[in-house]
Amino acid sequence: MSKGLTIAILGILVVLALGVGGLGYYVIVLGGSSGGHVAEAAEPEAKKEADSKYPAELFELKLTKFTTDLADKDRQRYTEVTISLTFPAKEDAEAAKKLESMIRNTVLTVLRDRKAADLSGAEGKQKLIEALVKPLKEQLPKLKEVFVTDLIVQ
Questions:
Q1: Which pTM does this prediction carry?
Q2: Residue 73, Cα to own-chain centre: how many angstroms?
Q3: What is the average pLDDT across 44-66?
Q4: The domain at 59-153 falls in which architecture?
């Protein structure tokens, strides 16, 4: 074989290899023109479950600055908390706005039963959320989740 023909064949092979590699990257990593269906097929089941737990959009009711004293007996302690509630439909969030006074009363009642030590750290925040969920769900059956977005203890 001549030297020129060998170089031409090697050049064609390199171009083909780069083309196949690029196409593979496009289909596998970027999802190709299938809208990501190829990549989605390889997603773990836990991720799919987490995504299906929530609707495409949640509606938020943000309740700001609950300031109250705490149950500490040794000295006067206060907390300031901001809470967000999420709902599956806009109508549910709007209905909750009409009940804001009742919701605020529930949150303040739960907060006043806590001591500063009860609210410390990530565990304290999680326990506060758990304490709020049951009474709030009784008032707002369509409530999806409670978030404590700010928490200050003095």
A1: 0.62
A2: 36
A3: 63
A4: 2-Layer Sandwich (3.30)
